[in-house]
């Protein structure tokens, strides 16, 4: 096996009296799609927050390329090429898709106009068109506010936004939870395209058929710890459900 790109070892995270992570471990190799699954409250979002610099674990180790790192802010994680799209769709409904893609990283006009805060909308639109094409996000019109698009299109933009800036790994926390079947397929196509560009994807999902159709591997969290790992090609639906519910125990390898 290759050296993991990102690894969590024995992470503990407490919120007051609640132990959200109780010695959780997690591994992502370069270029793979890993599904992170578990029941509600298993600690999935907390783990993603710790691995993307949003929260700091109380104890445990995080390694990038085998070296211990401290991800004390989202920008520290970004510095390692790690981006995150959160569960609640973080798009600005009044802005167009290009402006959403560049939210917080706007391109300014060259020279004085840029120093005065003037944005280079043409440059952003050109770059946005390329990024959307690269990830197979098809939008009818790049100039309408994103609030006027369908849920699936909005979510594809949200995913593309994280992916466009990630150069090694992107976390997608339940990107398809609020979507219908057709829209969900579209987002999954984006995930596959991202993987094809060599960027690793960690997909959190409740949808087991979806997990098995898109992931290379599956890691299962239960009550704040990793309880099982599977190769998606070798796993059955019952294995995943059994591990999530605790009916099927599999010793953690580490
Ligand atoms: N900010 C917080 N404050 C208090 N408790 C939290 C907070 N975030 C998560 N928790 C608790 O930690 C546990 C794990 O939550 P979470 O990571 O959101 O699980 P999942 O994403 O798997 O549903 C739950 O019991 C949840 O209520
Ligand atoms: Mg969650």
Automatic annotation (TrEMBL):
> Keywords on this record?
ATP-binding, Nucleotide-binding
Entries under InterPro entries matching the protein: AAA+_ATPase, ABC_carbohydrate_import_ATPase, ABC_transporter-like_ATP-bd, P-loop_NTPase
Q: Which SMART domains match?
A: AAA
Write down the CDD domains for this protein, in alphabetical order. Answer: ABC_Carb_Monos_I
| Domain ABC transporter, chain residue ranges per copy | 6-248
Q: Name the PROSITE patterns on file.
A: ABC_TRANSPORTER_2 (PS50893)
In alphabetical order, the GO MF annotations are: ATP binding; ATP hydrolysis activity
Protein's name according to its UniProt entry: Monosaccharide ABC transporter ATP-binding protein, CUT2 family
- Per the UniProt record, the source organism is Saccharopolyspora flava
């Amino acid at each position: 096996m290759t050296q993991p790109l990102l690894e969590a070892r024995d992470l503990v995270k407490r919120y007051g009296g609640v132990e959200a992570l109780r010695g959780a471990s997690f591994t992502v190799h370069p270029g793979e799609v890993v599904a992170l699954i578990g029941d509600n409250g298993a600690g999935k979002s907390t783990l993603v927050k710790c691995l993307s610099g949003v929260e700091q674990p109380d104890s445990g180790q995080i390694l990038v390329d085998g070296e211990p790192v401290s991800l004390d802010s989202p920008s520290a994680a970004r510095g390692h090429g790690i981006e995150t799209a959160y569960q609640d769709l973080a798009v600005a409904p009044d802005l167009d898709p290009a402006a959403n893609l560049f939210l917080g990283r706007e391109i300014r006009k060259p020279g004085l106009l840029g120093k005065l805060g003037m944005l280079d909308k043409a440059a952003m639109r050109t770059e946005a068109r390329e990024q959307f094409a690269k990830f197979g996000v098809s939008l009818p019109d790049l100039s309408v506010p994103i609030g006027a698009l369908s849920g699936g299109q909005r979510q594809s933009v949200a995913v593309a936004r994280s992916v466009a800036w990630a150069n090694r790994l992107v976390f997608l926390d339940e990107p398809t939870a609020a979507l219908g079947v057709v829209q969900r397929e579209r987002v999954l196509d984006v995930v596959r395209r991202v993987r094809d560009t060599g960027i690793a994807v960690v997909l959190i999902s409740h949808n087991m058929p979806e997990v098995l159709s898109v992931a290379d591997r599956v890691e299962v969290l239960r009550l704040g710890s990793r309880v099982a790992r599977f190769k998606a090609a070798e796993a059955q639906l019952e294995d995943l459900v059994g591990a999530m519910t605790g009916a099927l125990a599999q010793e953690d390898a580490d």
